Amino acid sequence: MRRHGGVTRVGGIGDAVARAAQSARSIEDFFDAVKRVVRPVLRFDVYACVTVDPQTLMNTGGDYRDGLPPAMMPRMLDIEYREGDANDLSDLAARPTPVGLLSRETSGNLDLSPRYRDIMRPLNFRDELRVLLRDRHGAWGALVMGRADDSPPFGSPELAVAASLVQPLGSALRRLHLTRLAEENVSETAPGLVLLDGDHQVVHATPTVAMWFDDLVHTDDVPSGDRGLPPAVYAVAAAVRAAGAAPSHTSWMHSRRHGRVRLHAWRLEEPTTTSARTAVVVEQAGPAERIALIAAAYGLTPRERDIMALVLRGRSTVDISRSAGLSPHTVQDHLKAVFDKTGVRSRRDLVATLFVRHYLPDMTPAASAPQRRPSV
Q1: From CA 115, how far away is CA 280, in angstroms rounded?
Q2: Residue 196: is its pLDDT beyond 60?
Q3: What is the largest CA-CA distance in the chain?
Q4: pLDDT at residue number 311
Q5: Do residues 248 and 94 make contact, with C-beta atoms less than 8 angstroms apart?
Q6: Do both 248 and 358 map to the same domain?
Q7: 198 and 250 co-located in one domain
Q8: In Å, how far are 145, 149, 251 from 57, measured between CA atoms?
Q9: pLDDT tens for each residue of 36-84
Q10: GO MF annotations for this entry (predicted)?
Q11: Which of 39, 106, 222, 353 is 20 to 30 Å from 376 at the Cα level?
C-alpha cells in the first residue's frame, strides 16, 4: 500500500487548494489538482474524489485511482444508497459544516458502521474522513479519504483543513459542471440494459453496455476484466432497493465520449430465472437532466426552474400563469429572478444564451463547436 507521507504547513492550505481548483479547465483536471495539493497535508492511504447530483446526492462519477479495490465498490455503494450508515453524504448535507470523521460519528465504536465492518476492517483501515463539496447553490462532489491501521489517526488539524475546502471546491466544481455540460455531444450508441443480482453482480448485460462505459475517466490503467460497472450504476441500483423506495429511480453520470448518460433502475419485484433483482437501462440523457443541472448550477428555485423550462418551450407569460396557477405579475417576478441569476436581460437573451452554452454543442461537430466558458 502506498503511503503519502510528509508534513506541510496547514495554514494556507485552503487558499492553495482553491487556486489549484480554479485553474482547472475540466473536472478531470480538478481531480488531479485537488489530490496533488491535499495529499501532503491530509496524508491519506486511500482516496476518492466523487461528483454528485446536486438534486439527489447520487454518485455521478469521480476519480477512484487511489480508492477501494473495484470488487469492493458494489458493497460500498449499497451501504451508501440502500442500507445507510453514519457519516454518509445525506448525513453530511444536513450539517452546517459538511465534514465528518467516521470514528467520531460512531463515538469510537466503529463496529456500529457497516462500512467499517464490511470494507474498512478487511482492508486494514482505521478511519474515514469525508468532505462534502458544496457552495450556496448546492452540493457538487465529495472527498473520501482513509488511513490505514499503521497510520496516525486523523485529528482536529485535519478536520480544520477539510472544513476550509468545502466552499471553494464546491464553487469550482459547480463551474466545471456547467463547462462540461456546454461541451457535451450527443451519442448515437443504442441504449443498454444491465441485470444485477442481490449483491449487485452482473447477471446479464446487452452488448451496448460496454460501449457506454468503455471510455470512463481514469480507468485506462485498470484491466477491463477488473473494472466492474461505474459506481454510479451501483448507486442507482442500490437506491431503488432501499427500504420504502419507489420501484424505479433515475440518475445520471458522465462519460467523456457520450456526455451525460441517463441511468434508469427498476426493482424487480419477483426474481427472474437468472436471479436478477434490479434492471438498469443506460442511455443518452435528455433535456430533463440538462435543465435540472442548469437550474441547480445557477441557483434557481424549483419554481424558477419550472418557469425557465416553460420559457424555453416558447410559452407566453399568460400561458405560464394559467398552467402554474400564478398571477402574470408573479410570473414576471420569477422571470426577473431567473434573468438576474443567469446574467441575461430578456426572454430572448435567456433562450439564446442557454442554447449557445448548453444545447448548440449537441448539434455541432466537436471540431467546430463554440468553446465558450459559461459565466456562473
Answers
A1: 24
A2: yes
A3: 67
A4: 85
A5: no
A6: no
A7: yes
A8: 18, 30, 10
A9: 999 988 999 999 999 999 988 999 999 999 999 999 999 999 999 999 9
A10: DNA binding
A11: 39
In this structure, what C-alpha cell is assigned to residue 6? 510528509
Report the candidate in 300, 319, 301 with the shortest Cα–Cα distance to residue 310. 319
Residue 278's nearest CA partner among 39, 81, 103, 61 is 81
In the chain, the N- to C-terminal Cα span, in Å, equals 40
Number of Cβ within a 10 Å radius of residue 111: 9
CATH value at residue 197: 3.30.450
Please give the residue range of the domain that contains residue 309: 298-368
Average pLDDT, the chain: 84
Cβ atoms within 10 Å, residue 200? 24
Residue 67 and residue 119 in one domain: yes
Smallest CA-to-CA distance from 347 within 306, 316, 375 is with 316
pTM assigned to the model: 0.77
In a domain, 266, yes or no: yes
The answer to whether the beta carbons of residues 169 and 163 sit under 8 Å apart is: no
Tens-place pLDDT, residues 257-304: 787 889 999 999 765 556 889 999 999 887 677 778 888 888 899 899
